[in-house]
């Protein structure tokens, strides 16, 4: 049975100190990931200090592509069905997100996806979601 994605109203994200570059880039359609200046490892969610070596971090643009690691399809959610997922970016970090712009009943673990940015309420910054490639 087909269940096409329909956007649910999304609250505007709370922009904490230090996350401004992430949401400014989202407004430009870019997905950013934090990298350590010392050990060069990427990490998500964004932190001021590297979780691996406690080094300083910097923002770098991600490719915006990845693979579905895990998901949960909510066919009877209100007001519209949705699919939450963990997506492992090509950079190696995994982020929680939603799958969009497809028949949600066809989502599969291991499926290749690319980022899309969906608007939020109250003119807040858009949030990254992913769609199958």
UniProtKB/TrEMBL annotation:
<feature type="domain" description="ChsH2 C-terminal OB-fold">
    <location>
        <begin position="59"/>
        <end position="118"/>
    </location>
</feature>
<dbReference type="InterPro" id="IPR052513">
    <property type="entry name" value="Thioester_dehydratase-like"/>
</dbReference>
<feature type="domain" description="ChsH2 rubredoxin-like zinc ribbon">
    <location>
        <begin position="23"/>
        <end position="56"/>
    </location>
</feature>
<dbReference type="InterPro" id="IPR002878">
    <property type="entry name" value="ChsH2_C"/>
</dbReference>
<dbReference type="Pfam" id="PF01796">
    <property type="entry name" value="OB_ChsH2_C"/>
</dbReference>
<dbReference type="InterPro" id="IPR022002">
    <property type="entry name" value="ChsH2_Znr"/>
</dbReference>
<dbReference type="Pfam" id="PF12172">
    <property type="entry name" value="zf-ChsH2"/>
</dbReference>
<protein>
    <recommendedName>
        <fullName>DNA-binding protein</fullName>
    </recommendedName>
</protein>
<dbReference type="InterPro" id="IPR012340">
    <property type="entry name" value="NA-bd_OB-fold"/>
</dbReference>
């Amino acid at each position: 049975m087909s269940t096409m994605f329909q956007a649910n109203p999304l609250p505007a994200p709370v922009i904490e100190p230090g996350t401004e570059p992430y949401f400014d880039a989202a407004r430009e359609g870019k997905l950013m990931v934090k990298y350590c200046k010392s050990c060069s490892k990427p990490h998500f969610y964004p932190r001021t200090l590297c979780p691996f070596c406690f080094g300083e971090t910097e923002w770098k643009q991600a490719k915006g592509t990845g693979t579905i690691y895990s998901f949960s399809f909510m066919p009877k959610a209100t007001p519209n069905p949705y699919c939450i997922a963990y997506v492992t970016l090509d950079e190696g970090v995994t982020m929680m997100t939603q799958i969009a712009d497809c028949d949600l009943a066809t989502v599969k673990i291991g499926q290749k996806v690319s980022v899309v940015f969906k608007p939020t309420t109250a003119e807040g910054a858009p949030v990254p979601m992913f769609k199958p490639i």
